[in-house]
Specification:
The complex is a heterodimer. Chain A is an all-alpha fold. Chain A is built from 19 helices and four strands. Chain A has one domain. In chain A, the strands form two sheets. Chain A has a two-stranded antiparallel ribbon with strand order 1-4. A two-stranded antiparallel sheet of chain A has the order 2-3. Chain B is 71% helix and 2% strand. The two termini of chain B are 44 Å apart. The chains are: A mainly alpha, B mainly alpha.
Chain lengths: 399, 385
């Protein structure tokens, strides 16, 4: 039995099996409303993964991921607005502002292929250009954070103020649009979107894991820990930072598009300042620098938010503010980081059951050593000297 | 000519509010390097202090005294915001010196709490909060001393706050059933401060009408600027603050109490936010979200001006004010009526307050490409700023 659970094959495949099982069972188990919520929060996990990539691994705290999130959402929203029209018609809101011809930048969104690329290429390009301008001047740390926030405000004001171009503060609705002939807001469609989201979260996780392992990942961590040293070693941090910021932007775009179709609307509110800082706290609570922590943080905190807001709406800001304080002062590595650093063991030790600390795991699991241990325990202590009867153990540290 | 004066005055008026709001931030961020995202909420506390002072004057003091309530509100707002800032420094920020990104997140959390606090504070809520804090602080007194040297003491240290918080919530909800105690003090609605009559008129000067409230704000800003400059340049504590800013460890070696200096700097910076809050109440109704409208602008002012330079802050704020007014009012169209149609369209495109912000911020970002350290950069030979 013990062999089954410690066998490496199962340990590797078990999480995936559980994931697939969850993907199949949850749509049956949860009512459509809850499933839709879970799908939304999972899609937020993708933007959280991007933030983890640039903040947890590279040390750049962006407070402007909402830009890329909303750009992705708008790209898909515009396509859906156009797709559900008869030829020659305009989206309904245009008539309110007396616009009679479709603005030029809407035209390409008639094409599904263009939209498919626009969802992630446009945010990536915007992030790349913005990042390059900032990183080229070696602006970093809090200045980078403030500048991203300012950029966020610029985009927010622009989208919020342009009724005639993009329906301003009202945003674009996607619920009543049709995709492949089915209503986007319908239960069946939402279930498909849930599966799509789940698949894309896994893909993004794999992408992030691939990026953060190996040389590229080492360079990112080096930028976080000591950028001047990396530069003096002959690397160009600007290129790495720009690239990783663009990747995070693309992920935010995908996340925004998925969130939009599942929540039914995209509006400038997704570019509001608080929402982008909220994204950071998902990663911080889950555990920055741990990929799974980012996804978990996004899902758990948002689920908690929706539950608390249903019951006691006025307490949520207190809880959220408290989370910011708690995570910064007491849990700097987040929940997953705390868990991996042996946090539960420390709590156990405090209440009086210290966990058995394996000093040399390879040694402790060696069958021969285990056999000798059993032999020793079964023998009364007084009988003879132990060193004479047991063979010499290998010195610690050698294989 | 009139247009020029008009533009200058209005730009100055917008800019002076920005100067006042950013001044405290320039002190805290510029001198201490602390990112205080709760700065806007400290302004909001100043505004609410003004509201309370006004109500006290209206309700329980003779009518003849009402016109001067705003003069009483200014020092009080300074005190309230300053003390809240001091508390913030002593409890949270002190642990985070040298970790600016963490400070940013923590103070954002504080700002959320302050916002919601103003919305939902009622007598029952306040009493529950007081009970929780008192119980939490006194817990070590009323428990056996031996408990505090055990292996599980860290759990107790956390647990006492959970228990104290629970008891506080219980008290608050019991008291909340009494209707008069459950009434929120401010609620989530915006509040209106009535300006005294002498701040409601306007003065005609050289063909330009200047609202007195605006003039008052400009005067207040000038006064605050002079005060802060005098304090930093001439007073003994100001010199200590500058010494700590320049070289913390050396100042420490020379016997300057750096912790007191930190606390004092933070108190002053926060207090200035409170004064800015008083000024903001004269411009219109204010609400719990007041801070969010100012915080990003304030940071842009400080970054554009050059961190640690008050002169840069002033120049940047006034520059942003004038530029925003010129763009936002579209007054270029009046100066040059016969401009090409393309340019005309472009200017009218940006001629709203929010679109002016878009353009001004874009200009700032471009400007920072050429002068990354702002208008007045710190001189030095460090590789890393």
């Amino acid at each position: 039995m013990a062999d089954l659970f410690s066998s490496r094959g199962l340990r590797r495949w078990l999480p995936w099996l559980l994931l697939v099982a969850a993907g199949l069972i949850l749509p049956v188990l949860l009512p459509p409303f809850r499933l839709n919520l879970l799908g939304r929060f999972l899609s937020l996990g993708i933007v959280a993964l991007g933030i983890d990539l640039i903040w947890g691994f590279t040390g750049m705290l962006s407070l402007g991921q909402g830009i890329f999130f909303a750009l992705g959402g708008y790209a898909l929203g515009m396509y859906l607005q156009l797709d559900s029209l008869e030829p020659g018609q305009l989206p309904e809101f245009f008539s309110l502002y007396g616009v009679t011809t479709l603005p030029g930048f809407w035209q390409p969104f008639n094409s599904p292929l263009f939209t498919f690329f626009a969802i992630w290429v446009i945010p990536a390009l915007v992030a790349g250009v913005l990042g390059y301008l900032v990183f080229r001047n070696r602006i970093k740390g809090v200045y980078f954070s403030i500048l991203t926030q300012a950029a966020l405000l610029v985009f927010f004001n622009f989208f919020n103020g342009q009724q005639k171009l993009i329906n301003g503060t009202n945003g674009l609705k996607t619920d009543t649009a049709r995709i492949f002939g089915a209503l986007v807001g319908s239960d069946a469609m939402q279930r498909n979107l849930f599966w799509l989201t789940l698949a894309l979260v896994v893909l993004s996780w794999l992408l992030c894991r691939w990026l953060t392992s190996g040389r590229f990942g080492d360079a990112l961590v080096a930028i976080r820990d000591d950028e001047p040293r990396l530069r003096f070693t002959g690397y160009n941090p600007t290129a790495y930072k720009t690239l990783v910021f663009a990747v995070a932007g693309a992920m935010a775009g995908v996340s925004g598009a998925l969130y939009t179709v599942q929540s039914g609307i995209i509006s400038p509110q997704f570019m509001a300042v608080p929402f982008s800082i909220e994204m950071v706290i998902w990663v911080a609570v889950g555990g920055r620098g741990t990929l799974i922590g980012a996804v978990l943080g996004a899902v758990v905190i948002n689920y908690a938010k929706s539950l608390v807001s249903e019951q006691l709406p006025e307490t949520w800001l207190f809880i959220q503010g408290g989370l910011f304080l708690l995570v910064v002062t007491a849990l700097p590595d987040g929940i997953v980081g705390w868990w991996r650093a042996g946090g539960p063991g420390r709590i156990q030790a405090m209440v009086g059951w210290p966990p058995v600390a394996p000093t040399y795991p390879a040694l402790d699991l060696d069958p021969q050593v285990l056999a000798e241990q059993r032999q020793l325990e079964s023998r009364p202590l007084s009988a003879g000297s132990a060193s004479a009867t047991t063979p010499q153990q290998p010195p610690a540290g050698e294989p | 000519m009139d247009l020029l004066y008009d533009t200058l005055f209005n730009g100055l008026a917008i800019g002076s509010v920005l100067v006042l709001a950013a001044l405290g931030l320039a002190v805290v961020f510029g001198l201490m390097g602390v990112i205080n995202m709760a700065h806007g909420e400290l302004m909001m506390l100043g505004a609410y202090t003004t509201f309370v002072v006004q109500n006290i004057f209206k309700a329980s003091l003779p009518d003849a005294l009402f016109p001067i309530y705003i003069l009483v509100a200014i020092p009080l707002a300074f005190l309230v915001s300053g003390l809240v800032g001091l508390l913030l420094e002593k409890t949270v920020i002190r642990r985070l010196y040298g970790r600016p990104l963490e400070t940013l997140l923590a103070t954002w959390g504080v700002s959320l709490i302050l916002q919601q606090f103003v919305r939902s504070v009622s007598s029952a809520f306040a009493l529950g909060l007081v009970l929780a804090v008192v119980l939490g602080l006194l817990a070590p007194r009323f428990t056996p001393r031996a408990w505090w040297q055990k292996r599980w003491t860290p759990l107790l240290a956390v647990g006492r706050w959970i228990v104290a918080g629970g008891l506080g919530i219980a008290l608050a909800s019991v008291l909340g059933s009494v209707r008069s105690l459950d009434q929120p003090w401010f609620s989530a609605r915006n509040i209106d401060v009535t300006a005294p009559t002498w701040l409601r008129g306007s003065i005609e000067l050289g063909g330009v009408t200047m609202p007195t409230a605006r003039l008052f704000i400009i005067a207040l800003t000038a006064l605050a600027l002079v005060g802060v400059t005098w304090f930093l340049q001439k007073s003994a504590w100001g010199i200590r603050i500058r010494a700590v800013t320049q070289n913390r460890s050396m100042s420490d070696c020379l016997g300057i109490p750096t912790e007191t200096v930190d606390a004092l700097t933070f108190l002053i910076g926060s207090g200035l936010a409170g004064v800015a809050g008083v000024a903001v109440t004269l411009l219109g109704s204010v609400g719990p979200n007041l801070g969010g409208n100012y915080i990003v602008d304030c940071f842009m002012v400080v970054v554009l001006g050059g961190v640690g330079k008050l002169a840069g802050t002033v120049l940047a704020a006034l520059g942003i004010g004038v530029l925003s007014y010129i763009v936002g009012s579209g007054s270029l169209l009046l100066v040059w009526p016969a401009m090409p149609a393309v340019l005309n369209e472009l200017i009218s495109f940006f001629a709203t307050t929010s679109m002016a912000k878009v353009l001004v911020f874009a200009i700032i970002v471009v400007f920072l490409q050429f002068r990354p350290a702002g208008l007045f950069p710190q001189k030095g030979r460090l590789v890393e700023a």
